[in-house]
Input
Amino acid sequence: MKVGLVCPYTWDVPGGVQEHIRGLAEALLDLGHQVSVISPADDDTPLPDYVVPAGRAVPVPYNGSVARLAFGFLSASRVRRWLKDGGFDVLHVHEPAAPSLSLLACWVADGPIVATVHTAIPRSRAMHAAEGILQSALEKISGRIAVSEAARTTLVEHFGGDAVLIPNGVPVRKFEKADPLPGWPGSGGALGFLGRIDEPRKGLTVMLSAFEILGEQRPGARLLIAGPGDAEEALARLPASLRPRVTVLGQVSEEDKIRVYHSVDVFCAPNTGGESFGYVLAEAMSAGAPIVASDLDAFRRVLRGGRAGELFATGSPAELAAAAGRLLDHPELRADLSAAASAAVRDYDWPVVARDVVRVYEAVVPGVGRVAVAP
Amino acid sequence: MVTTILVVAAVAILGVYVSWRAGRLDRLHNRLDAARAALDAALVRRSSVALEFASSGLLDPATSLLLAGAAHDARSAQNGQELPQSDLTRALRAVFGQPGFRSTLNGRDGAEELLAELEGAAHQVFLARKFYNDAVATTRAARRRPLARVLRLAGSAPLPDFFEIDDSLVGNGEASQGADMPHLTG
Output
């Protein structure tokens, strides 16, 4: 099948949507499909063969923050040309309600269009104000996919109708094997945390309070923290005796991130909210890390209700310390969790997810002909 | 006797002076109120025209959505909120800054009128804000004088604040030709 994917955000800027499209494109290629992606990108950015640049994205205020988006007639004509050259069997746009390439693609295309909604955004007043214009473009979408329950709810509220739930894919193979960082995990018990340090909902304060409890009980226990942001302020609250046992890596490369998952005895995800899927968990599961995670809806679902990782009451350092301590004491429990996690994460492996997406393509293709440029 | 006359005269002169200063402050506050009303009206007009432009069908849907969002936020912002107004300016600048933007509108029905109206409205914001800030500066200076402070001549009126927004429709730092008037580039 010839598939055209539309990415609304700049290709080489790190982001969940770009990551998703890259994973999907490569999985579709592996399955033997022909894939072309159009994405905003600076002209001198090195791009994979399957990506066609649509020009630079412009920073512009949108929904209360500054986003880099591609809009305007120039971008629209680039999409039109790409569609004409591509001769696609199906057009797959991502985040169609963002004022960028995906919306433009819906506008200029006719034929089988599939859309994936990633973020759960509250119905914005902008969308209300531009309702008529949005509607005529979005009505052309014949198959809708949401990556999470929250995204599906948003989609249904905004546009009515329904959407198929297909979770985010994870490149499981990439995370499966890696060498631990030098000196880790050691023998005293190593805990790991990964996430934005300055984003309170990632739960670093819960993690540190739990380590305060756990560190007192276990003189050998250490904590490994990775993620962008300044940790000084958070660490200052720890007792001085514990501070040398906390290692902060700051922002790490993709490669080192994988090594972090392999460097700890117990991986902790103390997030306090705001997670719609739990990408970090899926990565840790791919690496076979024994996991202790907050009892959030999204986490409970990914961890199979607690079978593929321990759940603790969200926001409770005492419970986190107890659960992590139990795992540190019992290697056989860790081995069981690790095996269960590796098995459970197969459902999110890209080849599996991509096959589900292809089923959606097949459902919308019959009878509509190929993707054409709207008159 | 002479001393009494002198004291009475001094008090009378002081009284006249104080009431003259108080009257001046009152006039300044009136001018300030009028300037503020003009500024608010200009801001509302600009966001309304921007919204009309966004829903005119002259633009592609992505640009429409962007502009509609910024215009809507600016229009529904509380009085005195500066950020949504600056955001609208930036959105307008991003839209009009697209290469060849004006030529895509050439000859389209109603495009000329809407563009002229939008340009006028943006210009009005620029002027109204200049005059308002001017009034703020004068009023603040008058209220800082010792007599006005000691005798609290301004009464309970709050000290006015400058209204600081980005209202230049020319790109960052690029001086427009001739006068400091904003123009929609294109």
